Amino acid sequence: MCDRKRVVIAGLGDCGVLAAIRLAGHTDVVGISAKPGLVSGQELGWRLSRPEEWARANWIPFDRFRALDRVRTIHASLTGVDLAARAVFARCTDGSAVAEPYDALVISTGVTNGFWRQPTLQSAADVAGDLRRAHERLAAADSVIVVGGGAAAVTSAAQVALTWPAKRIDLYFPGRQALLRHHPRAWPHVARRLHELGVRLHPGHRADIPDGFGCDRITSGPVRWRTGQLPSSADAVLWTVGKVRPNTGWLPPDLLDEHGFVRVESDLRVAGRPELFALGDVAATDPLRSSARNRADTLLAHNVRAQFAGRPLRTYHAPARRCGSVLGVQPGGLEIYTPKGSTVRFPAWAFHRVLLPLVVGWGYYRGLRNNDPLTPATDSR
Ligand SMILES: Cc1cc2nc3c(=O)[nH]c(=O)nc-3n(C[C@H](O)[C@H](O)[C@H](O)COP(=O)(O)OP(=O)(O)OC[C@H]3O[C@@H](n4cnc5c(N)ncnc54)[C@H](O)[C@@H]3O)c2cc1C
Fold this sequence. Notes:
Blueprint: E1 6-10, H1 14-23, E2 28-33, E3 37-39, H2 44-49, H3 51-58, E4 59-61, E5 71-82, E6 87-92, E7 97-101, E8 104-107, E9 111-112, H4 124-139, E10 143-147, H5 151-163, E11 168-172, H6 186-196, E12 200-202, E13 236-239, E14 245-246, E15 262-263, E16 269-270, E17 273-278, E18 283-284, H7 296-309, E19 324-325, E20 334-337, E21 343-346, H8 348-364
Parallel strand pairs: 1-2, 1-8, 2-5, 8-17, 10-11, 10-13, 11-12, 15-18
Antiparallel strand pairs: 3-4, 5-6, 6-7, 9-14, 16-17, 19-20, 20-21
Helix pairs in contact: 1-7
The structure holds flavin-adenine dinucleotide.
């Protein structure tokens, strides 16, 4: 009699895929995903300005991951969970309903943010269409306003300026400086680079976001400022204001905190529910909800297995500041900002020939088959 445990991973984005890879082979793993592959929410600037290149590293159909061969993926949108019966429910593109029982459920449905992170059920052609439309919209603009002071805003301004040096790019943010959640040493460095790229910086501008506007499309009308300045206009306005909403509408409210994120203990188990875990942007681990970029997928996989085996679970320790890449890859390479304020630099050749194929491709993903999702026949996957 086989008593292999069954783990359902709800949401196969950056964290769900990593968790599935680390659990496959130890347990039966089923992943439920609204997208037909990993469509990463990372590196918005790169995605907008050079989508083909971005897609090779950040949009990876599931069948290209060797380590997911042992994982059953279901292309469907989660609709609910029965905690007593231990089953999740989802709906497929053809309208059919799915019910998947679990011994442990990993919630990794992330957040909705702008037009580039939407939880909608999409085909490969839909994903390709989104990438192309946003790129074409920016390509056609002579002037671009980027609103926001976080990493998504900064990388967008930098990468658009890098790809289209003739465009006028203005970055508006509310504080005296941007990147307030990073170490204070990060901003002067990043601001210098933005100046070199010709991006005009406008501190002290807080945008007036019209009621009902979800910041989920590129606009072209004037931007009004709550801080008193005259309105500003450009051919394209990119709203990267960090207006994130957790993708938790399918979960019972008592699992959620007051902002709708999943309440977790320091071992990533959902409070009061030892068979439920949460990981990534949806998990209320700490004020920065930092478990994605700090690779808590390894700890999560350990803890799921420890929970099954009755062994002690490990604790997630969150850093106090944001870290990671901010500007994205440039001709000079990639810079990673650490929580303690130092910078780690990878030359461009090392990023393309070592970091992506070896560290990410083998280290994180344990081997990828050839990946080029924007080549023709996207719908056949
Ligand atoms: C290894 C790593 C390195 C990182 N480095 C950086 C960095 O350098 N700089 C930086 O700024 N950030 C970095 N990040 C962080 C990153 O920007 C986000 O935090 C990360 O993308 C969040 O992953 P996630 O899995 O929580 O969400 P997502 O990747 O958004 O995944 C959620 C998935 O769930 C799906 N989903 C949602 N609702 C449903 C539903 N109802 N039914 C079915 N599917 C659904 C979504 O469509 C999506 O596919 C890094 C993250 C990782 C993992």
